[in-house]
Amino acid sequence: MATPEKQKPASHAFRVSNDAGRLEYRRARAAQLAPELEVRARMVLAIAGEAAVVIGREQGYYLCPDGALEGVDAVVAQANEVLDSADIAARKEKANKPFMVKLTDMKGLTIDSAIIRFALRRDIVAAAARYLGVVPILQFANVFYSSRDREELAKSQLYHCDSDEVEQVKVFILCEEVTSDGGPLTFVAANASQIVRDRLDYRYKFRLTDDQVRGVLGTDLEEVALTGPAGTAAFLDTSRCLHFGSRFSDVTTRRVVVMIQYITPTAFILPDDFRSGATFRHLATADHDDLSRMVLGAS
Ligand SMILES: O=C(O)CCC(=O)C(=O)O
What we know:
Structural class: alpha+beta
Number of strands: 9
Bound molecules: 2-oxoglutaric acid
Number of helices: 10
Strand content: 5-15%
Helix content: 25-40%
Largest sheet: 6 strands, antiparallel
């Protein structure tokens, strides 16, 4: 039996539009959510100085070599436990992207899990908040297993900018060594990505070939690949920076990363009452401080 098509939310047309259309939506949402955004912006002033890293607006990313980011070892250890107990074949079978599968059910992550503790850490949240101008919501945290699926590149294996928010911060932590032929996340700085989007009248459902990106930037194209030993990490605005990953020429190679996503209450993927769409809201208790409650979407 054919599955009925999912009803798209009213924001969908803006979500997959071009930069101008998306900004128009964001302005309207920001006006609607003004009191909430104000509180979240005020909190940024209080915590900005504690940021683990400072993500430049022009770059839209920050790279942390192994050892630079304190506490990632606990995240890597949890990811390895998840990996040991995961049924990769079963997950691939059900996955929308068999070349990059989620290894755990996010709802099963507890407040004491190393991944969630890291994602709520003041200095990590501050890094994302300082860049975004508001304390964001933790919307996604998972372990991803990437491997070769088929020869033809598809979906996120091709250059794209994420449509779910106008700007966002994802933190990627390598859980095993990744080399240049091991499917690294590869990206272009935000200012160069903007040039490509403007020139190609980019819509946020497009996937671009390497030739299209090179065709615009020519010899100015600088691709950054997230390679290195376990513990290497990157903060990346995947909405403003063109990126791709999980391209493998070798069937025996795999890539294991933890990905943590922070978005703002204005994101296209959140409903009007953004709290009800916040993935980890159920983890918030009255014992959490204001910052953690905001990040969990409970404020
Ligand atoms: O690392 C990858 O394979 C792609 C990741 C990606 O496109 C994303 O997280 O937005």
